[in-house]
Amino acid sequence: MNTLDLQKIKDDAVEWALTHGVAFKESSYSAVHTPFTLTPTPIRRETYKLLQNLAKILSKLIYSVSENHDFLYDAIYPIKAGNPFFSALLNMHQQIHSSSSTAPRLPLLIMRSDFMDDVHDGFKLIEFNGIAAGMGPFGQRTHELHQYIQRQWSTTYSEWSHQAKGILVENHAIEGISAALARATFRIKQEFEDPGPARFLMIVQEHENNVFDQHLLELALQQKGIETHRRTFQELHNQLRTGDKNRLILNGVGPLDTVYLRAGYQYSDYEAASLNEKECCQALMATRVLIEQHRVAVNATVAQQLATSKRVQMLLSHLRLDELVAFGLKPEEVNTIKMVLGEMLPVNPHTINIVKESPSDSWVLKNQGEGGGHCLFGADIQLKLAKLDPLQYQSWSFMRRLHPAPRSVPSLVVRKGELYQITDLVSELGIFSVQIDNYAASAEPCFAGYLIRSKSAESTEGGVHSGQGVLDSLVFSD
């Protein structure tokens, strides 16, 4: 394949991506396509089926953990002293659940479980994502882009994918996630016998540039007959009130059926200098508490955010079979997830010494942050530990570092309109699952699509939005 032909394919793929909303907002009037691969990553059918099942079991576990408020309090309380943000989250959690009666909100868990394929141990869980578990729509669009390339540029696809006979792995994340949101939305609407339009509110960050992924989801909801609205926490301040039977009302809009958070996982989402608060962020955090004190479907609840934290992940990795069964799992389900719960350790003088004496590529140091930039590797681990106050230790954890095998052949990726060849592409696979409640068999967690992000093995930051990652999709290798 000559260079001119590759440039034509690359330009066509970029235009396809922009046409289909696979982009980041660059300014108030312009956008740039998100980075992506030109060909998909192979996976065995048996492995993919196993990961789907694992994601559903993990969703069932996290839902149960998120509704066990005593367990969450005991899990998070030790990190309050060293983590002001999680201290604030725990205070919000206590306000929501301070009454003897159950908080009226309808919990809607939309979770992404991220896995990586270690060269020796196979797939292991990297982390849970329960708030801002986004980019599902981008995952589906990348699958569709690879379908397009396979049809339109079959010779090049065959040459570069080395999987020309493999079947692309279907990805219906937009439909899967929007269907869950729609079910919850119409459930609340029907409870109130409300003749007006079903309404969905997305809470977003100010000056957000990852808006197209969000709009793709909103569009799917609109096509289901749901009216959608977008607000920041500051825009919601003093704009919410209580209607009959604990109905949540947005001034100027009307009753709300579902509130979906794409913000709230960092302090800056709650900052509002204009409010002249005595303590940072209290007013806008009170807005989030207020929402959960009403009969409205919510993703993610504060409890779900705590339950999907690195702290809880570390604690769950140490629980015995009987302790995990107590969260509603069957023994065989516990045995299944034990295969992928990676080794994690709390940070204390003993484990610091263990890590110090291990090879430099053996461990990762993680804090409680969401998104990119919250993991430290190699020599940076000891440098950070030397700066930490011991009170902050419990806000951090060690995770056994994974070493995925790169693709067996070079891969082409496109970033900012330029074509690059990467010889050591590795991938992180996120599986979406949804669960509205846990009262009936029909409420079992459902698979809701996937997101695969790939990067050079030399890069330690794989986020598409915040690092060196690119959007990818899957193809069956057998």
UniProtKB/TrEMBL annotation:
Chain ranges of the Glutathione synthase substrate-binding domain: 200-307
Record-level GO cellular component terms: cytosol
Annotated signal sequence range: none
InterPro entries found in the cross-reference section: Glutathione_synthase, Glutathione_synthase_a-hlx, Glutathione_synthase_C_euk, Glutathione_synthase_N_euk, GSH-S_sub-bd_sf, GSH_synth_subst-bd, PreATP-grasp_dom_sf
Cofactor(s) the protein requires to work: Mg(2+)
Catalytic class of the enzyme: ligase
Pathway the protein takes part in: Sulfur metabolism; glutathione biosynthesis; glutathione from L-cysteine and L-glutamate: step 2/2
GO terms of molecular function: ATP binding; glutathione binding; glutathione synthase activity; metal ion binding
EC annotation from Swiss-Prot or TrEMBL: 6.3.2.3
Entry keywords, A to Z: ATP-binding, Glutathione biosynthesis, Ligase, Magnesium, Metal-binding, Nucleotide-binding, Plasmid
Pfam families: GSH_synth_ATP, GSH_synthase
Family classification: Belongs to the eukaryotic GSH synthase family.
This protein's name: glutathione synthase
